[in-house]
């Protein structure tokens, strides 16, 4: 590998890792509150489409991201209603969300035929173009769109919120011991709703970052390509800690970027093994082979306020 | 107590009670899903009644279309019953997508070998190979769930992707299974002796749906009338009680999850041997997840799986015809399916809550109750 290839690979790592980190920032709160939001794959897909569509009609990336986040809020609320209020199985509900989103985005996209041939307005770069001439770090760091920088900073904020604010403590309490949290006077339902809605908002934003970060168009037929599940994997591998999850997202982003390069250039390592890597690592983490972090105690379990035991 | 008594009498009605109990919720969910779908169809500027009529005609209007419905039903029946038996045991075996890939690999590996065998033997061997590979694949999440307590839904989802990429690798050129120089990654074509017979000339109707319906009936009887079925249901309703009653909970968990994997393997094998004739990269594309939806709509009842599978296959097969004749987008069918399931699971809980509340007002306050 030449130096140029390594630099372009590192830049692509950040570019592919950024959306994953954005999605993971919301997901970690949902999972810490005990809800596995498997619907993030579908919400991401909706966000990817709505970002392109709004950007196409308004030409304004800010409006596009805000509109997409509102869409994520609505979808997150729907997911919270089903899994928290209705207490449906979180994973199955999520899978159905993803199925509906796959069909729904294909359907809407076929109606929005005008956006097909156009590249829409994308996120601007944070630094002026001349910064890209700085050797080595220039092309890696200074040619990134704003949204990727936001993604790189957000995990620190999320970590602070989770560990150093009352709200973060409450969310963790709800996920580990809802009964005790309720006894202490917290509204378990409301906190779960807030956490799940947050995961919806960030999943949509992550999807928007995927399309408006660089490429500027939407591709029919599930363009998120399982990235929502990669985030679920990263949350497990990162041990439900925002910073470690962000690191896992970057590693998975690097694998993704390398895999895409190997598909085009050809390599003696099969690229499918790199595609498998996040999932295999997650299995190892869940099996206790890698890391020793325990999931939130009510991970994936519905909360019934009237149940006594 | 009157309400519980009334409910008991209701249940003891042999057929009606069952249909009402197991069919009521999904029926409401499906109707709501169809209604919401009608709204979406209307939004895209087509009369929903016309669209649904086109869908129905496209699915059961001719012998060919009925054959198509049955072809689509075949993998759904097999994966659906695999998930359903898990639901009965309180386990969510959502790895069917992966089991189908592994089943296809197993069946494909045996099927592409030009063995000097009569078709019946070759077909049986290939299906068994598919089931065996998928079963071995399912052993890992099953072991982790049963003996290490690892959440089976997350592991099986992750393994779906591993299986998908593994299959993709297996059918790429340098691997022995792959077709050399193919324009799209695929395996070599199956030997003629390993192909399932075509039941109706001019269609691709293969006997997969018969295997599927047989599996559904078999598991219905097994769940209802055998000690295995009793242990399974016990595990689903109250694992603690099952443990106290001397059920080997771990072994039963392992068994139920591996059975789901075996069924998925057979589904993948039939899909390759009856329809595709090759293992293609990414050929499953969501059928395994639809199997989960089908089992969920049937509330884990294996006979219900037959009905919900027919509904799904009709929607899918008819959806293609609907899209051609009315211009409603093809993906609409997927949306309708997902909406039906989402409404069903949403409706499901409220009904149970009503029952529990009825119990609660009449019965003792400390009566043990289970919701969710």
Please outline the helices and strands.
The complex is a heterodimer of chains A (309) and B (372).
Chain A: H1 3-32, H2 40-58, H3 61-85, H4 90-111, H5 137-141, H6 146-164, H7 166-176, H8 178-183, H9 188-212, H10 227-237, H11 242-265, H12 271-286
Chain B: H1 2-12, H2 16-43, H3 48-60, H4 63-88, H5 96-111, H6 119-148, H7 152-170, H8 208-225, H9 227-237, H10 239-244, H11 249-276, H12 287-297, H13 302-326, H14 332-362
Describe the structure.
The complex is a heterodimer of chains A (309) and B (372). Chain A has a single domain, classed as ABC transporter involved in vitamin B12 uptake, BtuC (Orthogonal Bundle), CATH 1.10.3470. Chain A has twelve helices and no strands. Chain A has helices at 3-32, 40-58, 61-85, 90-111, 137-141, 146-164, 166-176, 178-183, 188-212, 227-237, 242-265, 271-286. By secondary structure, chain A is mainly alpha-helical. With 372 residues, chain B is mainly alpha-helical. Chain B has one domain: ABC transporter involved in vitamin B12 uptake, BtuC. In chain B, 73% of the residues lie in helices and 0% in strands. Chain B has helices at 2-12, 16-43, 48-60, 63-88, 96-111, 119-148, 152-170, 208-225, 227-237, 239-244, 249-276, 287-297, 302-326, 332-362. In chain B, α5 packs antiparallel against α6 and α8 runs antiparallel to α13. Chain B is globular, with a radius of gyration of 22 Å. Chain B starts with a helix and ends in a 10-residue tail after the last helix. Residues 1-12, 350-356 and 362-372 of chain B have low confidence and may be disordered. The chains are: A mainly alpha (309), B mainly alpha (372). Chains A and B meet through α4, α10 and α12 of A and α6, α7, α12 and α14 of B.
């Amino acid at each position: 590998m030449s130096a140029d290839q390594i630099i372009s690979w590192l830049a692509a790592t950040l570019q592919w890792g950024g959306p994953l980190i954005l999605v993971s920032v919301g997901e970690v709160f949902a999972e810490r509150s005990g809800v596995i939001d498997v619907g993030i794959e579908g919400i991401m897909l909706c966000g990817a489409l709505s970002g392109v569509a709004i950007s196409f009609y308004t030409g304004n990336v800010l409006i596009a991201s805000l509109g997409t986040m509102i869409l994520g809020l609505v979808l997150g609320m729907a997911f919270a209603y089903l899994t928290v209020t209705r207490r449906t199985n979180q994973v199955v509900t999520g899978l159905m969300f993803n199925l509906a989103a796959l069909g729904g985005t294909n359907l809407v996209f076929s109606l929005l035929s005008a956006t097909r041939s156009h590249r829409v307005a994308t996120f601007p770069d944070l630094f002026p173009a001349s910064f890209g001439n700085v050797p080595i770090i220039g092309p890696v760091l200074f040619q990134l769109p704003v949204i990727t920088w936001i993604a790189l900073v957000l995990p620190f904020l999320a970590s602070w919120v989770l560990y150093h604010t009352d709200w973060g403590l409450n969310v963790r309490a709800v996920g580990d011991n809802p009964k005790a949290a309720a006894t202490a006077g917290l509204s378990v339902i409301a906190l779960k709703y807030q956490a799940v809605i947050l995961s919806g908002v960030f999943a949509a934003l992550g999807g928007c970052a995927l399309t408006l970060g660089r490429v500027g168009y939407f591709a029919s037929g599930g363009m998120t390509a399982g990235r929502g599940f990669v985030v679920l994997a990263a949350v497990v591998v990162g041990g439900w800690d925002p910073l470690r999850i962000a690191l896992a997202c970057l590693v998975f982003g690097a694998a993704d970027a390398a895999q895409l390069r190997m598909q085009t250039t050809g390599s003696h390592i099969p690229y499918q093994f790199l595609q498998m890597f996040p999932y295999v690592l997650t299995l190892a983490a869940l099996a206790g082979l890698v890391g020793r972090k325990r999931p939130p105690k009510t991970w994936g379990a519905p909360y019934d306020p009237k149940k006594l035991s | 107590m009157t309400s519980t008594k009334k409910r008991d009498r209701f249940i003891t009605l042999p057929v009606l009670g069952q249909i009402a109990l197991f069919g009521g919720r999904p029926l409401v969910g499906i109707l709501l899903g169809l209604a919401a779908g009608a709204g979406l169809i209307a939004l895209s500027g087509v009369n929903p009644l016309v669209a649904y009529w086109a869908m129905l005609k496209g699915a059961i209007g001719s012998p060919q279309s009925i054959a198509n419905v049955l072809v689509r039903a075949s993998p759904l029946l097999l994966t659906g019953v695999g998930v359903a038996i898990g639901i009965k045991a309180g386990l969510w075996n959502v790895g069917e997508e992966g089991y189908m890939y592994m089943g296809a690999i197993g069946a494909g590996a045996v099927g592409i070998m030009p063995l000097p065998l009569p078709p019946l033997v070759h077909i049986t061997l290939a299906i068994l190979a598919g089931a065996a590979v998928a079963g071995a694949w399912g052993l890992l999440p099953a072991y982790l769930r049963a003996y290490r307590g690892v959440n089976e839904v997350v592991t099986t989802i992750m393994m779906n992707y591993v299986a998908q990429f593994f299959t993709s690798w297996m059918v790429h050129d340098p691997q022995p299974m792959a077709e050399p120089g193919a324009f799209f990654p695929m395996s070599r074509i199956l030997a003629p002796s390993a192909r399932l017979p075509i039941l109706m000339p001019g269609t691709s109707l293969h006997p997969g749906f018969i295997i599927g319906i047989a599996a559904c009936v078999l598991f219905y009887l097994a769940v209802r009338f055998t000690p295995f079925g009793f242990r399974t249901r016990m595990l689903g309703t109250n694992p603690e009680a099952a443990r106290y009653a001397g059920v080997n909970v771990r072994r039963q968990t392992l068994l139920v999850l591996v059975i789901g994997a075996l069924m998925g393997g057979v589904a993948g094998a039939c899909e390759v041997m009856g329809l595709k004739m090759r293992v293609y990269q990414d050929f499953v594309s969501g059928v395994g997840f639809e199997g989960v939806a089908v089992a969920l709509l049937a509330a884990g009842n294996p006979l219900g799986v037959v009905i919900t599978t027919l509904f799904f296959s009709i929607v899918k097969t008819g959806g293609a015809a609907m899209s051609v004749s009315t211009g409603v987008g093809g993906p609409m069918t997927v949306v309708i399916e997902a909406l039906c399931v989402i409404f069903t699971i949403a409706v499901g809980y409220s009904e149970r809550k009503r029952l529990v509340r009825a119990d609660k007002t009449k019965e003792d306050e400390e009566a043990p109750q289970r919701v969710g």
